[in-house]
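call fold(seq) -> tokens
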Amino acid sequence: MARIARLTYYPVKSCAGIDVPSAEVTPAGLAHDRVFQVITPDSDVLTQRPHPVMATVRPRVLGDRLALSAPGREDVVFVIRRDGPRRPVSMAAWDGEGVRQDPRADEWFSDLLGRPAELIGVAPGHDRVTGGDTPGTAALADGHALLVASESSLDSLNERIAAGQGEPVPMDRFRPNVVIAGWAEPHREDEARELTAGTAKFGYAEKCVRCTVPMIDQETGAKAGPEPIRTLATYRRGPSGGVVFGMKAAVLRPGQVAVGDEVIVHSWAGPSPSTAAAEPPFTATASRPAESV
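ret:
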């Protein structure tokens, strides 16, 4: 039986996630997932790709407050602004705006990153349409409401890494929202088209093309490549040429989910061609940005 093994939401895009035993599923994904984002004064999005230290930031949603902590730094806690001064933001073919948060958060992130930075949150009336096979919406994630991965996919990857004398990687390198256990075959998530868990229902959008973020140690914020991208490149390539791991999904029906909930797939696609073992070599630099930071 397939079941949910792990649920994680990431309050601030590109910062650490919070594992929870249960979660509300909103139209935009798990509650509180990527509802804040760090940008430059020119509205460019800041992520782990150029700033891997962001992985060490531990955000916590405390009711109407947000707390930020990182090793060697004093915590900052402030009241979340649901509305107020706006800042434009652009990502993944979407142009919108966010609400400026507390200046103390701006100062905290600027000091951490060594450059001017501002923290914004989802604005009232946030209206964003995501594409793929199943359209939906999302908060401030790169592309879609949910990233789904399976334990069997990671086990298969780590077996290949070990065969090449490399060190296995943990699931947090891929920053999924939902981890599924119980599928014997790896990458079954690629083939699921409609699935339910708890009282929520999800629809397949597309495979997740990975960037360099999986090569960052999510505990230390240190670059730890070339794995897992090097090994993924030998057998997991998408139509665009990038390496893929995990499935991006839209929310078809909001609801509640919990670790241990059975995952029921109502419709499947055919076998995924990306699971074929014989693939030509590929370098990580050719991949387009991932949609899971």
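The longest helix spans residues 151-163.
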